[in-house]
């Protein structure tokens, strides 16, 4: 009787090979590997339906989503550990648009944004939309985030599609 050692791609005798689906189910049960998103939105404007749309889009693809309403009076830090950070604001101004004033102090409270993927969205307003979007992206980049996508959103359906698009970025 000779003893043969299993090759690199062989399993030792008696070990059962699990299917890829079974392994993925074990990972899901353990909660390991789940992707997390943080949505920070301005308290100004009517962003709640859009934030919920983005949340639905991300959650439909297996993401865990936390939302934070911007509040400049709050001084508590916002913990890190997110795979992507989204920031939403109404476009303010008429010609020279800008993001809402409560966004910048809230972003400064975020921890560990350096190198994190980010996305920005604004609600449209006259000629201010594009410059408000650029302002919002500049705020994210100033904190070290890497802006990977952006959008102008007016309806919850558009917001949900944006969330689905972001979920595919991984």
What does this protein look like?
- There is one protein chain.
- The chain has 170 residues and is an alpha/beta fold.
- It has a single domain, classed as Flavodoxin domain (Rossmann fold, 3-Layer(aba) Sandwich).
- Helices cover 33% and strands 19% of the residues.
- It contains five helices and five strands; from the N terminus they run αβαββαβαβα.
- The chain has helices at residues 20-30, 48-59, 103-109, 129-142, 156-167, and strands at residues 36-41, 64-69, 84-90, 117-123, 146-152.
- The protein has a five-stranded parallel sheet, with helices on both faces.
- Strand 1 (36-41), helix 2 (48-59) and strand 2 (64-69) form a beta-alpha-beta unit.
- Helix 2 (48-59) runs parallel beside helix 5 (156-167).
- The N and C termini lie far apart (52 Å).
List its salient traits.
single chain, 170 residues, alpha/beta, Rossmann fold, five-stranded parallel beta sheet, 5 helices, 5 strands, 33% helix
């Amino acid at each position: 009787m000779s003893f043969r050692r299993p090759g690199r791609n062989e399993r030792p005798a008696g070990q059962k090979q699990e299917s890829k689906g079974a392994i993925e189910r074990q990972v899901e049960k353990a909660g390991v590997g789940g992707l997390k998103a943080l949505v920070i939105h301005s308290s100004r404007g009517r962003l709640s339906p859009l934030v919920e749309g983005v949340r639905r889009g991300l959650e439909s693809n297996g993401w865990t989503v936390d939302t934070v309403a911007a509040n400049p009076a709050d001084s508590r830090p916002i913990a890190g550990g997110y795979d992507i950070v989204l920031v939403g604001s109404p476009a303010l101004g008429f010609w020279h648009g800008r993001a809402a004033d409560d966004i910048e102090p809230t972003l400064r409270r975020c921890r560990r944004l350096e190198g994190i993927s980010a996305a920005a969205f604004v609600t449209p307003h006259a000629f201010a939309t594009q410059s408000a979007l650029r302002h919002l992206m500049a705020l994210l980049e100033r904190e070290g985030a890497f802006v990977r996508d952006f959008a102008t959103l007016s309806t919850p359906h558009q917001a949900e599609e944006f969330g689905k698009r972001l979920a595919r970025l991984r």
